[in-house]
Structure formats: structure tokens, C-alpha cells
Amino acid sequence: MAITGGDTARSVPSGGKYQMTVEEFKSWLMKFDADRDGRISQKELKQAIRNCGAWFSGWKSTRGFGEADVDGSGFIDEQEIDLLLDFAETNMGFKFYY
């Protein structure tokens, strides 16, 4: 299984984690910014999670969104994407290299 989107594709190694840099993750996530406003809605996050092949994408998007959308705007903006990293490592099978 691989995460694809634009020029980013990563295979799941034997450890079961998607391995990528933080910048690659941000670039991949922004591929789901359907309206190109530079922010991720909960619906867009759900689509990204579903694209990973993850189960319970609705539940995971609600949890991840709740952790990242600290200003309550209804969107995850550039500053809040960093808050999504911990959730992605813990709940979505990502391993980031800084």
C-alpha cells in the first residue's frame, strides 16, 4: 500500500508505518484541499484519511480535527497542521523524519 498524491508516494515498510518528512506530509495533506483555500476542512481530512486506506475515517477525522483545530474556526490552517502530526503518528500509522 502506498500514499500517493502529486509527486509524493511512500510505501508502508515492514513496521507498518508511512515514512516521510514533515514537509512531505504537509504537501500530501494539502492535495486534499479541494477549494484551494490553504486550509483543511473536516471533510477534506476525512478524505485524506480514507485515501490512506485507514478504517474508521469518520471517527479518526473527528478526533484529529478536534486535536488540531484549536482556534475553533472549523478549519486546520498552516499553523494547526503541526498539531495534526502527533495524531497522525499515533492514530494513522505515520512516522515522520524531521
From TrEMBL:
GO molecular function, one term: calcium ion binding
SMART domains given in the database record: EFh (SM00054)
Entry protein name: EF-hand domain-containing protein
Coiled-coil regions listed in the entry: none
Keywords carried by this UniProt record: Calcium, Repeat
Residue stretches making up the EF-hand domain: 20-55
Xref: Pfam families: EF-hand_5 (PF13202), EF-hand_6 (PF13405)
Organism (species): Salvia splendens
SUPFAM superfamilies per record: EF-hand (SSF47473)
Calcium in keyword set: yes
Gene3D superfamilies listed in its UniProt record: EF-hand (1.10.238.10)
Top-level taxonomy: Eukaryota, Viridiplantae, Streptophyta, Embryophyta, Tracheophyta
PANTHER family assigned: CALCIUM BINDING PROTEIN (PTHR23050)
Lineage: superkingdom: Eukaryota
